[in-house]
Hints:
Order of helices and strands: HHEEHEHEHHHHHEHEEHEHEEEEEEEE
Number of domains: 3
Strand content: 25-35%
Helix content: 25-40%
Structural class: alpha+beta
Largest sheet: 6 strands, antiparallel, barrel
Number of strands: 16
Amino acid sequence: MxxxxxxxxxxxxxxxxxxxxxxxxxxxxxxxxxxxxRYTPLVAPWEEENGADGFFLDITGAAxxxxxxxxxxxxxxxxxNRFGLPARLAVAGTAGAAWALSRFRRxxxxxxxxxxxxxxxxxxxxxxxxxxxxxRxxxxxxGFRHIGALIDKPRAPFAARFEKxxxxxxxxxxxxxxxxxxxxxxxxxxxxVRYLPEPVxxxxxxxxxxxxxxxxxxxxxxxxxxxARALRLSLYRVDGEVCMINLGLAMPTRSPAHVGRxxxxxLARLAGTIDAGFGFETIDLAVTAAERILPRQTELTAAAxxxxxxxxxxxxxxxLRQRLGPRSxxxxxxxxxxxxxxxxxxxxxxxxxxxxPPPDAAPLRPPVLLQPPEPVAVTALVPEGPPLRFRWRGxxxxxVHAQGPERIADEWWRARNTCGPTRDYYLVENSDGxxxxxxxxxxxxxxxxxxxxxxxxxxx
Length: 460
């Protein structure tokens, strides 16, 4: 190795030597793949055994945005050269054929019409099939110098002699077998991109452009009867860096104005972490999650889910989330459990919020639940009687009124080691008019010999 390095220095005086860093190469390749999503949202990095190598772009339905495949490749090659990254590019009907042509053709740019993969690959060496070193060495020992010698041969001897990698790579390159790619970003449901003649740097301009992109997406959403529930805004800087902003909505929406306001609020909250540099030259808005929006009669104003009142509430929740953070505001849905701490859970879809029982049919519950419940020292006339006085957080409270008990048993169908003792809940009011929700744990004489009390909730 030292002799080879000395020979290389003798041939090139300006040669620079750096230690290999595969992790840094993979991270750089991922950043470059995210930058390449300006051409198509479907970009998959490719890493070989010896490190980062390149990436695939699925430009189906996207090439016309830049004037065709020739213009897209010319723009991609020009920008990569500007970054100091000379590249070899190829367009083909399969990922395997494009990989082979970009590395083993003399021309730096190749565009292969669909259906000509076999003819184009036949003159290339077997290494163009992305085979392992052992498979390539075995093929050389057997005298196979070109892929054409493998295409028309019987498959049974190859299947018996080699691992399935050889036939799999051959079929993928020829389009006989589909090749799944691991994209750098989740494929969007709906997608819109705008290439700007002049870069923008202000948050107001970005929010305005995001609103215009949403106007184009709203027509497709309306056509399909769905709304955006999650969006991803991608901002491509002039120097190649990419800033991605994810937006989660409380209800599906098609409103461009609402999306524009959320983008402005999110940018204001992230002002210290997003650097526009010399400006953003491309802006991309993608709907990453869509949900059905049922038709409704807008003339009536009943306060039910899906009405304008519910939409205004959801819009308020969205604005608070963008200003305060995604986990600062949560909406709850009822759960099938009698235990108070298990009777509600964060809702995942907008439809789940309509499942609450009517107030007159639901048991009285405090708006604030303590989790976990806090121990309380209680004085009662008899062990099973209501509390007369209790001490909580160092303060003594005299009970004026007490209501209860409401007996709640644990869920017997759960595992035995998770079931707890029976609880007797009391709603009590002290001399200052404050109301508390206490419970006594365990049935006296059957489940426990000493009463243990806990504070579980507070009323207004």
